[in-house]
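Structure tokens please, single chain.
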Amino acid sequence: MDKRLLVNGIGMTGLTPITKMIAHLPLVFLQSPPQNALVICFGMGTTHRSMLSWGISSTAVELVPSVVSVFSYFHADAEQLEQSPRSHIVVNDGRFYLERSPATYDVIVLDPPPPVEAAASSLLYSKEFYAIARPHLRPGGILQQWYPLGFDYDPAIPASIAKSRKESFPYVRAFRSVESSGFHFLASDSPIPSYSAATLASHLPRAATVDLLERGPATTAEEQFARVLNQEVSMDEIIAWVPNVPALQDDRPINEYFLLRRLEDREYRQTKWKHLLARVRW
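Here you go.
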């Protein structure tokens, strides 16, 4: 559980139940049995592994080849899963892949690389990206996107991202995750049902239940889903943090242009920047 994935020295992910929920949450909300899924950003491979536990075809797209090569370091069954005819791992840019693929999916999930301010990360949060992804969802399909921070951390970023989703899909829901850290956003062209935790748990195949509970924190699938359902946040509430912020677009990457907002934040300036400037050697 202490293993971590770093790319160029930046922490990407750890062994956490959150990356399992990225797969299981949208799948259990589907109103018909899924056939396939697309995972953008491979990471440790946990989400791809969880998709395969449903007995469906899963295509995982990863930009960094060496990330894929360490799949077996994090999961003992990685080699077996890679040999499965249902497993497809592609080294490519996720958005580039979608632009050129004719395939459609029941679920598309993505966990953009941290930090959320990273250069070009806006290309996976923008209205233009959602316009590309939306036609690749089957009727009733769901797009899940993970946002790793709380809404009080530079609230202009989640407000801008939430607005871009709301303007791109007719139905969007947001849930704080099982470890009360970060949020799952679900978006669809069809209503996302208000299922109970018990109903969601009943949709899991047996192998998927085992996978969901592999790292806790709950001991039953119903309790695991209840931890998420009980922490739903409305899109309007998120946008209300900074109501005038524009929807995130390719040419308006709100997340990447953060410096002036934080310099204007008195509390942030007095804590973070004061300590930073004290270290500067002129």
